């Protein structure tokens, strides 16, 4: 339990991705089975143990200490599990041979009822040190919240075993905690486990951005064109009665989309874009990304949402047709099989992403400028002969995104960064003008922390330090007056209405594209410019 | 009407029943009466309020302790002896417990402190930091306007002392800042029996329990091993904490050069002259003609420096902070600390409560920090306690 606790302590406070990967892969190397596998499951959310409610923990601590002193402590710390882990003291001195391992804890909790679990937790709290008590309480209350996604954990496994992460993703859904065969394979002491389960994830094929030197490669004889839809990429797989909807990183998101899963009556594996529709008076219309967000990251989905924001999948590709793995066939043959395959599917849930006819590259230039639907992000160009391979090979598939939206905004607040950037003011809040022309004021419209070079970061940081007007902890507000301040050119992918922001708009994927030292702040854009970019019929997010 | 009647050494909140009983005995003004007077009037109430010290021995002390020491805007003042302890404004005569800047300020006319504290003040403020100085020998008594004064080790930092003041059989100990945990860079705390004990309350919550310093150093050294391509920046206060971290690293077997921020140099040199060996140290500065390479090293500096441009010379630093506050994860997270090192020069909760139990004073005055929790503990355990509202001290410093 101590090693697991030490790992959590470090992970919580390590901002850098590489740092987390090192901590995790070192832990996998140094920790024996089954603890390392159980820790992995705890992090990926695949551990199935009895939950203890916070109220039960409060009762436990009330039996042990003065309520007033606990209240002072909880007020100060702010987190129940952490407060209890810190104030807990046991009458018996710690005996090292009585300290439970993570394996002991999980095995006992798997079999326990909720009320038994509380008594076990009490006993363990007496045996563990503060850091391990915290880990235990996080484990039994569910929700680790340590800033490590399942994806990152798999990446760490890949680093630990020096294999490609796609190999892990492919195996993952056939494995169960504590993953001994997986670790044995990663340590080269056993063969790669076979993926035995039905409907495994098949690592997806990704594209690279199309850049100028490659324009000459694109011609109608070699590449087909398709729209790039702005939803979430999914893989639908249905085998021997097992149906699963995977995200492109192999997370199983089936539970959030029963309206798709219910209609997966086929046998095979499809690649497509998950979109949501909005039910209008008499017809369905594709919703914006904001509509899709209503359906994401939910454990369960309500009947009302199923009706107001029904999901459907726009199909790109067919990987497995019946029992036949066709990933090694050329794209154009898979496409023919996909078109035939799609005919058997429920038309309100599945449709084909159409191929776009073009003669010359110049036609594509025009198409990219004027896409027929606002949720098109750009164009996809796929080589006719391309086989379906995992990862991001350069050449077979290109994405050619629409140009971003651009506005000029004024820097108003800057916040210190983390890790490598902790001595820099590197997170910038920017604003546009609003109010009467004669008496305009600034309203913040977004925040960005990348897009600039290291050299520009130094200049920005110096500007912030030399023009600070107020400080609030790690945040500084900077001079932003009509004739004095810094104008930032901000690029972004889209705009949503927002009730949460004072300006009423929220940007997607904003980044600093240029520093406009030459421009006086008064010449930055006005809020009206942004409002004009919104589609009038967009719903509130 | 006043809300309390002062009896011997304790405060007795006035209830209607006691007031009625007292009305034919005393006036409605606040008045000093004896414990015996009250016991005659309403014994059960008085017993319940006085706790375990509700005994006859209080009566022998006719003076209020406030005549010996009381809190004033300039700091803790002795009306009887006409001096201040750790005043926050320039005064005629100051007794200083230790060299931290919120306790030891420059500009007093006469300063009395341990020789080490005087040396540290001279290092920080220049030799002319006071008009006149007087070195206090630990354990020796001195008279000052009829008040007896003595200095005793507090275990906080090098040179730190508790100050005991005594007159007419009443002794108050002002502990300044103190700790009970072992520290290879200063003398350990010496318990001094007293009537009133003035305690700090920096970490006076049951959540604060400082772990063994050796385990904390092991944590740091493990991380240095785990991330050899990065430098470890250890934030530690320039006086005391920094030298303690360095000394503890040496005790843990770390013999590489430790790089230090310029603000530490003079104090580290001074520690060496006092017999505290810190091993090989080098300034964490950049040579003009050589590429900086601090990968794999430990760098110690004041916490504020790590948010400054100074920190940019280090390759992908792991930011560490050596402080009792690091016990709380959220505190570490807010400060952008990647590796918290729980190491404090103040008492934790157990040390505070053990010290009070051990000294068994008639009254406890609680100052800078989380006074309410310690006062609550005193109430629960039968000690008469009250917060002493002193201003001007950093209750966050550690």
3D architecture notes:
The complex is a heterodimer of chains A (541) and B (398). Chain A has helices spanning 2-13, 17-30, 35-44, 54-62, 67-77, 80-87, 102-111, 114-127, 130-141, 150-161, 165-172, 180-186, 258-261, 289-293, 303-308, 331-342, 361-369, 454-466, 527-533; strands spanning 208-209, 223-229, 232-239, 242-247, 268-279, 284-286, 311-321, 324-325, 350-352, 355-356, 376-383, 397-401, 405-416, 425-434, 441-448, 468-472, 475-478, 487-492, 494-497, 505-508, 511-516. In chain A, helix 1 packs across helix 9. In chain A, strands 3, 4, 5, 6, 7, 8 and 9 form a seven-stranded mixed β-sheet that branches. In chain A, strands 13, 14, 15, 16, 17, 18 and 21 form a seven-stranded antiparallel β-sheet that branches. Chain A has 541 residues and is α+β, with helices and mostly antiparallel strands. Residues 536-541 of chain A have low confidence and may be disordered. Chain A has 19 helices and 21 strands. Helices cover 24% and strands 24% of the residues of chain B. Chain B has a seven-stranded mixed β-sheet with strand order 10-11-12-13-14-21-22, covered by helices on one side. Chain B is globular. The interface between A and B is large, with 40 and 39 residues.
